[in-house]
Amino acid sequence: MKEFMIQSEQPMERLEGTWLIAVSAGPDSMALLSMCLEAGIDCACAHVNYHHRKQAEEEESYIRLFCAENNIPLFVRNEEFTYEGNFEAAARKWRYEFFVQLVKENGYKGVLIAHHEDDLLETYFMQEEKNLVPSYYGLREEMMYQGVLVKRPLLGYTKQQLLDYCRQHRIRFYEDATNSDPSLTRNRIRIEIVSSMSRTERDLVRREIRMKNAVMQERSCRVNTMISKGRVNLDRYRRLEKDDRIALLRKVIEQEHHYSLSFVEQLDGVLMKRDDFNLKVDVRHLVQEDGMFFMTKPSEPYSYTFLNKEEILSFRGAERFRIDQGEKGVNALSVRKDDFPVVIRNAEKGDQIQMRFGNKKVHRFFIDRHIPLYLRDGWPVVVDREGRVILVPGLGCDPAHFSISPDFNVIQLRSS
After folding, report:
1. CA 34 to centroid of chain Cα atoms
2. pTM for the full predicted model
3. What pLDDT shows up at residue 415?
4. Residue 117 to residue 159: CA distance in whole angstroms
5. pLDDT-based confidence at 3, cuts 50/70/90?
6. CA angle 147-224-92, nearest 5°?
7. Residue 49: how many CB atoms within 10 A of its CB?
8. Which residues contact 270 (CB under 8 A, 6 or more apart)?
9. For residues 351 and 415, is the Cβ–Cβ distance under 8 A?
10. Measured in whole angstroms, how far is the alpha carbon of residue 2 from the centre of its chain?
């Protein structure tokens, strides 16, 4: 199919190595694929069929034919796609997971995506309309996603230029009918704003985007200096202006996911008022200890049962505690045969222990010793066969299990 190999007026930069090209059969991705062939870029293709449109099967067949005739390796994801919530968000996650898997399995350099200037402007206007403060305005030319490089080499092209390219080079493509539905925000912005913009207007908006990103980059570099091993001093944080606090907080909490401004502002409100907190962000929590805040995994419930002293002494430890040889102190315990089976588990609501001066609630111990909130749920306690708490590490054991030559120590460990 030599018609695909005609030289374009704006030849693409030659990229070293093999690249995975995301191809939908639309004009944007078909133009990208053809330009890569012209530039002599070694490439493979990835196509995702969600089976949500009537022409999806025809598009997949066309991609298969095109790649076969041009000797391009092709990977297709076409199993049943089910999702909850927003279709676009779920579909994006589904296809990007596919791209990442292919890149890592085949040792490709990264992924090429066919986003163009119109996509960039639409994204920016959506961000402005929703009053978002994103991690980046518009679209990045390059970014990392789950350890994989994603490049957008067509951001200098308009949608119309890519359509013209395909027609001039006799490249067949398919139009997605849903792109003309004005009830969708992106489509409305495309139809009402972007499609009618002059070259001068486009250049002015792109300049505005660059300036905003420059300000964001400068702020990012400034707040980066306040993070040490993922931790930030809470007092220093509170002395910052709000925009800097929000930028710094994003640095701490965001990995792959970007959070809304309102959500980050809620976290900021807590950090400005409370000295101890344990805030759920995603599967991780934002917590405070010793005047520093950071992200950590929350403690999962645990319980280990031991039938005799030898089992305890030979235990190698768990995520939240370890067993050491017995030394006198607030972590030490001696046990008797009639105590077994002995259980070491996480502290639970209502736990209390008999001390020389009376019963002590474990929760009260946490408060008195200023134990950070995030450590409390995972704090170990030792329980005898009757379900009585006989040791709380850091507080001590009950009088019946005290000895000047204890059998072992239970050492509470910090979370990762």
Report:
1. 33
2. 0.68
3. 64
4. 7
5. very low
6. 35
7. 19
8. 277, 279
9. no
10. 43
